[in-house]
Amino acid sequence: MTSTQTPERSTATPDHAGSRFAMLTFEREVAVPLPVLWQAWTAPAARAVWAPPTPSVTVEFLEADTRVGGREVSLCKVEGEPDIRCECGWLELEPGARSVNYEVITSEGKTLSAALVTADFAGTSEGSKLTVTVQLSSLAMDMESGYRQGFDARLRNLAGVARRTMVLQRTIQAPRTIVWNAWVNPETLPQWWGPDGFSCRTQRIDLRTGGEWLFDMIAPDGTVFPNHHRYVDVRPEERIAYTLLAGENGPKHADAWASFDEQDGATKVTLGMVFSSEAEFQEAKGFGAIELGLQTLGKLDRFVASR
Question: Which of 140, 239, 260, 275 has fewest C-beta within 10 Å?
Answer without folding.
Answer: 140
